[in-house]
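Internal ticket #5521
Category: modeling
Description: The requester needs a full-assembly model to guide mutagenesis choices. All entity lines are attached below as received. Residue total reported by intake: 351.
Assigned to: D.W.
Attached entities:
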Amino acid sequence: MSKTTLMIVCSLFLLPVTSMAESAADNYRTYCMQCHGMQGNGMGANIQDMSVQPRDHTDAKSMGARTDAELFKVIKEGGLAINKSALMPPWDSTFTDNEINDLVKYLRTMCKCKQPG
Amino acid sequence: MKRLLMPAFLCSLAAIMTPSIASADADGSAILQQQCVSCHSITGPAAPTLTALWQKKGPDLFYAGNKYRSDWLETWLQKPKRIRPAGMFYMDHIKPGEKRDMVDESTLKEHVKLTAADAKAVVLALSAMKTNSALIKAEKHDASIAPGPLGEMMFDKIYGCMACHQIEPGYGGVTGPEMYTAGKRLTPEFMLSYIRSPQAWDPKIWMPNKHVPDANMQKLVNYTIHLSKENFDE
């Protein structure tokens, strides 16, 4: 193995692990279920005193009324970005754009619905 | 001769005193190794992946010296009381319920209780753990910025912190640590730094960065300090 190849191989191990993308299912489990529920039905452990209830991600009607772009925006920038509740926080410091795109696709499988149009 | 005796005396004094300080520190470190490391990380780094995050059984302690108020910690270790209503990683401690997912109390364990001497030794050892000091030094707490009635408004409505944190026992979310004791548990600089960027401390933590402006961060922190004076935990 040449010195350059060895350096490249070694540098791969030095890359920050945090740059590793997590699966949408794992991200949903870790960050979303606390409010949207273990079954994604909006019945999360945190909702008892919320003034606005979290979205039921299994509801094809309400989820089908949202475009993929809106879902992306609300995950990245929070509820206020689409005139919804501040209880939905911005996750831009947690997820990469690719992870958010994966989450949007994951939500579509949960609601078994497509974006309008 | 007198000039020689004084340094010798001071050296002897130091020699007598040093072992007691060192042994207290060594005991604290030993207790940490024996009783704490199975649930807490005392060396770091913070969990770099979700898999590692899910395995956490208690908060990281490798920056405990920057995070906790020593007086609170020493008292709490002797009489520990749950701070996170749904445990460390909430998914291990909730189950579906009729109206919402519920905390499964049967899965939660009591924290180990220490004697006064052990608590003192452990706090001494923990206070030396100061990873991320640069983040702490970057913060300046201003106790004069009173939150007024805006404090609770910001916490509950504007930033929605109550979604995950309780502001009094039984009121608020359960997946984050209770906030009504935060003012006596945590240093104000740690609170400021953590609100500014939770990911700087714990890259995978389930607390989002709410991008709170500086002046409002001070108000939020001063609100929690005000809350802690209500002594809901006593």
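Resolution: model delivered.
Comment from assignee: Residues 10-18 of chain A have pLDDT under 50 and may be disordered.
Ticket closed.
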